[in-house]
Predict the structure.
Amino acid sequence: MSAINEENTVLVRREGPICTVTLNRPDRLNALNPDLLQGLTIELAKLGNDPDVRVVVITGSGDKSFVAGADIHSMNQLGPRAIADYLELGQRTMRLIESLKVPVVAAINGFAFGGGLELALACDILVCKEGAVLGQPEVDLGIIPGFGGTQRLIQRCGAGTARKLCMTGERLTAADARLLGVVDVVVPDAEFKAEVEKLSKTLASKAPLAVQGVKRVVNRAVEQIVLSGLRHEVEEFLRIFASADREEGMSAFLEKRAAKFTGR
Ligand code: COA
């Protein structure tokens, strides 16, 4: 396993044509801070140029969490310019995953909240541990999803489900996420690693040009709608990020108390 950046927040393991990228901030449940996102963009660019890679797997370190979201500690300290840069970095990272020419498997090994679920939604096939919990809880922090979650949820499960999940912030079990079409496969915890390996090997055994052709054609079908939606998501996010409720929501999380929202 090699590390991509100084903080070791992105670890990479190659096994033949399969590359596993592990997001590694276990003390923060692998939350996405700028350092991790930068490391991931560097790795994705390298993978995009490697003709020997046929499948990429993205997972979280440890047994508890895939990714618990965008990093609330970091976000809470950002001013208007810096939050716009952070949002741009996050959206660009998700687009890099989505437009990687090879299939990308999200191995959801635990919590997948906020930016974590958004990252998974940018992948091609979402495999989820039975014990995982998923959701878009941004409304509890006074914000909305900003890394493409609103748009990619609509593509996966329809506008009704996207609306409900993003408006209520409800936390889904893996089984419910499967029923709604948020994830593709749910696997008992003990069989999770083996099942991800089996799926990756299956994908790697298929004709690469054909697999990549499927990805391009499906992406092309939804691309224009998603891209225009992503711009709207950024505009809306930045407007709402400037609100008093956002300050209250994030302070409440960091102070481990319930938020009191006023609509300002
Ligand atoms: N950003 C930054 N830090 C995070 C984080 C996030 N999204 N999610 C968890 N952490 C940190 C916690 O602050 C805590 O740090 P501390 O030990 O310094 O207090 C550490 O990770 C462990 O989290 P904790 O809440 O103690 O674990 P838990 O098992 O009780 O709860 C969650 C796990 C995922 C349910 C809970 O951490 C949570 O709700 N996280 C936020 C999810 C979210 O709203 N994501 C969207 C962000 S836009």
Q: What stands out?
A: The chain has one domain: 2-205.
